[in-house]
Amino acid sequence: MAQVPVTVTVTGAAGQIGYALLFRIASGQLLGADVPVRLRLLEIPQAVKAAEGTAMELDDCAFPLLDSVDIFDDATKAFEGCNVALLVGARPRGKGMERGDLLEANGGIFKPQGEAINAGAADDVRVLVVGNPANTNALIAQAHAPDVPADRFNAMTRLDHNRALSQLAKKLGVSVNDIRKLTIWGNHSATQYPDIFHAEVGGSNAAKAVGDQSWIEDEFIPTVAKRGAAIIEARGASSAASAANAAIDHVHDWVNGTPEGDWTSAAFTSDGSYGVPEGIISSFPAVSRNGRWEIVQGLDIDAFSRGRIDASVKELTEERDTVRQLGLV
Ligand SMILES: NC(=O)C1=CN([C@@H]2O[C@H](COP(=O)(O)OP(=O)(O)OC[C@H]3O[C@@H](n4cnc5c(N)ncnc54)[C@H](O)[C@@H]3O)[C@@H](O)[C@H]2O)C=CC1
Ligand SMILES: O=C([O-])CC(=O)C(=O)O
After folding, report:
1. Does domain 6-155 have CATH number 3.90.1030.10?
2. Residues 166-176: tens digit of each pLDDT
3. Which GO terms describe its biological process (predicted)?
């Protein structure tokens, strides 16, 4: 191994996303085919044995890039020296629940994890929160890591972005490779706004190519925004492999940069752009340059998009107010 290994901490390692994620990280898909990784897995004590089973399977793959796997039930140890933290461990929602119903149950997990990241992670740590409600859990972790730059705490809306790409490609009968500049705004929840008004298909405007506002409003947006619930209904369990895939995409692009001529969607601390209140963790059109996300500026937001963005942002500010009342931020 030519390079120094990068330390990647994964929480909820024995869960279903963990199982879909760890093998892809160890094979080099998270950071690059020449970057060795050290895995540190965090689980609750009852699930440590299952995590050990996964670690045995990781051994059995003989991944050339996998330097080591260590398992912990103590957050302080798990985040020691961590460069990339994937906060997956949380309670998933069941049928009929909204992600916001999990705020109190999961809020308690992200405070100690933020503290542990603050105490022991590497100076360049990047944190992606996957566990729901992801945006507000990221806000909680960030609030307890005052020494880590705020922009290092992200929440995952890349799965929504990928879902939207796929739905739009199907509608237009094109490949996902033909679509650029799609955006998920707001919260990773049913209020999210998948925006195709700035998207391009084969270089032309995607909304014009669709040419059907009622499809956008009544089919596309609800299908993308409620896809998580549809998967739960169909599978009896929430999305796992697609969520792991999106986490890989998000961190890969954050670290290695987004392609020229395109952008993606990522949730991070608002600087007030597009009227999103400063400080909340909201999804934006984003490019990554030199390892940092930048919000794509200068997009015209019409009245329809304004209303949708505002509705999702309102939910985010309400979630923030709830966790404030609970003393979590
Ligand atoms: N942002 C997104 O797009 C998506 C988010 N999710 C969310 O990801 C989370 C994980 O989903 P699954 O893997 O399906 O759930 P799961 O229930 O299969 O696994 C969760 C794992 O987390 C562990 N865990 C619980 N508390 C922990 C703690 N304090 N520290 C470390 N580990 C802990 C559990 O023991 C369990 O092994 C859920 O919150 C789910 O809603 C799921 C899909 C997409
Ligand atoms: O819907 C859920 O609870 C899991 C999730 O976040 C998603 O699939 O988008």
Report:
1. no
2. 999 999 999 99
3. malate metabolic process; tricarboxylic acid cycle
